[in-house]
From TrEMBL:
Source organism of this protein record: Clostridium acidisoli DSM 12555
Lineage: Bacteria, Bacillati, Bacillota, Clostridia, Eubacteriales
Top-rank lineage group of the source organism: Bacteria
SUPFAM superfamilies for this protein: S-adenosyl-L-methionine-dependent methyltransferases (SSF53335)
InterPro entries found in the cross-reference section: Methyltransf_11, SAM-dependent_MTases_sf
Record-level Gene Ontology MF annotations: S-adenosylmethionine-dependent methyltransferase activity
Record protein name field: Methyltransferase domain-containing protein
Amino acid sequence: MEKHQCNSKETQQLERKIKFLNGVERRKEFPPEEVLQMLAIKKTDNILDLGAGTGYLTIPVAQMVHGLVYALDMDEKMLEIIDCKAQDESITNIQLVKGSIDNIPLPDDSIDIVLASLVLHEIKPLSTTLQQIKRVLKDGGQFMCLEYEKNESAIEGPPMQIRVPSLVMEQELKNAGLNITQKIFLRKKIYIITAKK
């Protein structure tokens, strides 16, 4: 009986997570197509979406390129959702990768663009993951991260104590040897930083 309750609780948590990741509000706040336009994406690019979730960025970016789009997530269920969406949209260039973003299971210098949307605040230490991102990026490759600013007035998003302030993120990127190319804020609560290797 206890096991069933546990599974039921896990199912409810998963459903809440999926609802948030696919939410209409999220799409209004930062439409994926608009966000992706900040990058100079070429048809031939190979792209890695870290902590891909339900494919919020994976699906639209896969429709923009002929190269491979790697959807990396630790959660098998998230990868299954991406797979279903890809099949529904007849998208064939998505490669599902089960793994951790602090030990990316891809070769050195193999990726043109790495995306990290609302996932880096979950990682400690951040420096390890940023070194992994730099390792898989080709020379001149682009990195884009979206995170909630540590702003006491913003109530949505992750708990305040785990957020990474934009100034800290900028410093971490510089420490990792990445060159920041752009920083913008969406409604003062989400920041987008792009950088190059």
